[in-house]
Each structure stands twice: as structure tokens, then as C-alpha cells.
């Protein structure tokens, strides 16, 4: 048995999926297509040491990820947002890497558990 936590909150995902209709799958693919660019934007704001923009983009990623049940992305992004709002970017790189890794894990879980390729 795998002790690793799921990258997806399946209760949330199943609730919004409404039977995994083609419309839902299309919207989910749009969400998944935007996330890598948002990660890159977030990393750029971090490198510029722009706390306000880092917090704003982290909030955006956190919210959309939570809506789709991508809990493994939303949790580290919540930490980035909170830190940036508190005036610190300590731990940013590790949290961003964790979010990226969990995003890929979530995509794989969705394929394996629901047959949906993002």
C-alpha cells in the first residue's frame, strides 16, 4: 500500500466534475494548461523580489487549484501567499518545486483514477 498522500482531493474533484462530462474535462484541461505559465510568472516575480505580485499570483494558483481539488498544489501556494504577505519569500523555491511536482502527480492521478489526460 502506498502511504503517500494523494495530490488530489477526490471529494472536491468529484463534486465539481458532475460525472466528468466533456465540458468539465475541457475546463480542467484549460486550467491545467494555464498552471505551468503561472508557475513561471510566479518564479519571475520571486526573482524580482516583488512580494505583492508573488502573493497575488500564488493566491490565483492556490484558489484555482483548490477549486479543482489539486490540494498538493494549493497547500504550498497558500504558504507562499502567506509568507509573501508577511514580507518574506523564505522557502519559496522549495514550495514552488513541491507545487510543480504535485501538479504533475495530480495529472497522473487523474489519468490513472478517472481516465482523464490533461
SSE layout and pairings?
Blueprint: H1 10-17, H2 22-47, H3 51-68, H4 71-85, H5 92-114
Helix pairs in contact: 2-3, 2-5, 3-4, 4-5
Number of domains: 1
Q: Specify the number of helices.
A: 5
Report how far the terminal alpha carbons are from each other. Answer: 26 Å
CATH topology assignment: Four Helix Bundle (Hemerythrin (Met), subunit A)
* CATH homology superfamily: HPT domain
Strand content: under 5%
CATH top level class name = Mainly Alpha
Broad shape: elongated
> Over all CA atoms, what is the radius of gyration?
14 Å
Describe the structure.
- There is one protein chain.
- The protein has 5 helices and no strands.
- The protein is mainly α and 118 residues long.
- The chain has one domain: Four Helix Bundle (Hemerythrin (Met), subunit A).
- The two termini are 26 Å apart.
List keywords for this structure.
Four Helix Bundle (Hemerythrin (Met), subunit A); 76% helix; elongated; 5 helices; 118 residues
Question: Would you summarize the structure shown here?
Answer:
With 118 residues, this protein is mainly α.
